Amino acid sequence: MNQKPAGRIARFPHLRQDFAASLVVFLVALPLCVGVAVASGVPAELGLVTGIVGGLVTGLLRGSSLQVSGPAAGLTVLVFEAVQEFGLPALGVIVLATGVLQLAMGALKLGRYFRAISVSVVEGMLAGIGLVLIAGQLYAVAGAKAPTSGLGKIAGLPEALVDAAGSTSALASLAIGAGTIAVLVLWKRLPAKVRTVPGPLAAVGLATLAALLLNLPVATVEVQGLLGSVQPPSLSSFGELAHVGLLGTIVAFTLIASAESLFSAAAVDRLHDGPRTEYDKELMAQGAGNAICGALGALPMTAVIVRSAANVQAGARTKASRVLHGVWLLLFAALLPNVLAYIPIPALAGILVHAGAKLVPVRAIVGLWREHRGEALILVVTAVSIVAVSMFEGVLIGLALAVAKTAWEASHLRLEIVDKGAGPVQAYLSGNATFLRLPKILDNLEALPQDRPVELDLSGLHHLDHACRTALETWAERHSAAGTEPVKVTEPVTTV
C-alpha cells in the first residue's frame, strides 16, 4: 500500500511544481485567449479552443518542454484580415493547411533553418504587428469601429478620440480600457504577494467588477457556448484553396507562426537549464496543434512567450504544467462559459494594447542604431512596410533587405596600392571579391599608370568568384598589351 504513492512520486517527481505552475499559466492564458479571439473578429470561445489544443495536444508532444502554445497577439492582425476577406468558414481551411505545411517542414527537418532568419526581420515583423494591433485596439478602447488598413487606423485615431469625448458610453469605455492598461503597467511595482495574481487576470477582473458595480454602458463579450462556436470547415470551404490570395495567406500564416514559435523557443531556452528545444520536433508539434485547430475551425496557434515565461518563472519543470493548463481551460470553457459575458471588451482591448506595446522593441532599436545601423534600418523598414502595405509583403520586403545587406557585407573587399615611385606598382586585394564589388576593383586597377609594370597580389582573398576572376584576367591582358612588362599575378591560396 505504501509503495504506490512512492511509485507515483518517482514517476512524477515534479508534480507539485508543475501543478502550481499550470494554475499560473491558466490564469495568464485565460484573458489572452479571449482577448485575441475578440480582436480577431471571431467568437471568444474559439480562442479558448486554441488554448485547449495548445495544452492538451501540442503540450504532450516533444519539442520544447516548457514552451506554452495558444492563440497569439502576433497573428491577430493577419487573422482579422483573413476573416474579413475570406469569411470565418475559410479560417479553418487556412489554419488546417498551415498545420499540414508545418508538419511537412518538420518532417523535412527544416525547423532548424528558421534560426537563420534575420533577428531584425523578426523583430521588425513583431513591431509592425504591434503597431497595427495598438492602433486597432485603441478604437475598441474608445468604443469605435476601426478602419481596415494599417495606415487608416493610425491616421484616424485623433478623430476617433475627439468623437469619443462627446459620448458618455465612449468615455466609459475609454475609462475601462485606460484603467486596464494602467493596472498592467503598475502591477509589476506592487508587492510580491499581490503579484501572485497574474497582471492580465487582475486587470480584467478589476475592469469587470468596476463595470458591474458602476453599471457602465460598455460592450461586453458575446457568448455562444463552446460547442456552438466550434464549426469545422465544410467540404465546400476547401474550394477556397483555388484562390491565389488564400494560398498567399496560408504561406504568411505558416512562415510567421513558425518563426514566432521557434524564436520563442530559443528565448525560453535562455530562461531555464532544462532540456534544449528540438526545433524540428517543435515545428511538428505546432503543426499537429494547428491542424487540429483548423479541423475545429478555431484560431491558429503559436508558442507564446508571455505564457512560456510565466510557466518557467512559476517553477515548471516538465511538460505536465502546460498540459494541465489546457485541462483548466477546458474545464472553464465547459463549466463557466457564461462568465465571459461579463467581461468588458475595452478591458480585453487594453490587454492587447499593452501586449502590442511589448512587441515594439524601442530600446532594441536605439541600441541597434548605435552599433548596427543596417540592422536597425531593416527592423524599421519591415515594421513600416507591414503598417503601410500588409503583413506578407512587409515580411518579404524585410527578408529582401536582409539578404541584400548580407550579400553586400559578404563581398567586403580591400584594395591597397603601393607605389614607391620606381619599380613595379604593387596592388594587394584582400577579403571577398564578388561581382558586387567588381566596379570598384576595375575602377581602381584601370586608374593605374599604363607605362608601369604591375604586381597583382590576390593571396589575401578568401573568395574570388568567376565574374571577378574573368574581369581581372581581361584587365591584366589589356595592361600587358600596352607595351610594359606582363602583369605578375599571385594567386589566392584557395578559391571558391
From TrEMBL:
<keyword id="KW-0472">Membrane</keyword>
<dbReference type="Pfam" id="PF00916">
    <property type="entry name" value="Sulfate_transp"/>
</dbReference>
<feature type="transmembrane region" description="Helical">
    <location>
        <begin position="120"/>
        <end position="144"/>
    </location>
</feature>
<dbReference type="InterPro" id="IPR011547">
    <property type="entry name" value="SLC26A/SulP_dom"/>
</dbReference>
<feature type="transmembrane region" description="Helical">
    <location>
        <begin position="86"/>
        <end position="108"/>
    </location>
</feature>
<dbReference type="GO" id="GO:0055085">
    <property type="term" value="P:transmembrane transport"/>
</dbReference>
<dbReference type="GO" id="GO:0016020">
    <property type="term" value="C:membrane"/>
</dbReference>
<feature type="domain" description="SLC26A/SulP transporter">
    <location>
        <begin position="15"/>
        <end position="382"/>
    </location>
</feature>
<feature type="transmembrane region" description="Helical">
    <location>
        <begin position="20"/>
        <end position="39"/>
    </location>
</feature>
<protein>
    <submittedName>
        <fullName>SulP family inorganic anion transporter</fullName>
    </submittedName>
</protein>
<dbReference type="InterPro" id="IPR001902">
    <property type="entry name" value="SLC26A/SulP_fam"/>
</dbReference>
<keyword id="KW-1133">Transmembrane helix</keyword>
<feature type="transmembrane region" description="Helical">
    <location>
        <begin position="199"/>
        <end position="221"/>
    </location>
</feature>
<keyword id="KW-0812">Transmembrane</keyword>
<feature type="transmembrane region" description="Helical">
    <location>
        <begin position="327"/>
        <end position="356"/>
    </location>
</feature>
<feature type="transmembrane region" description="Helical">
    <location>
        <begin position="376"/>
        <end position="404"/>
    </location>
</feature>
<feature type="transmembrane region" description="Helical">
    <location>
        <begin position="164"/>
        <end position="187"/>
    </location>
</feature>
<feature type="transmembrane region" description="Helical">
    <location>
        <begin position="241"/>
        <end position="263"/>
    </location>
</feature>
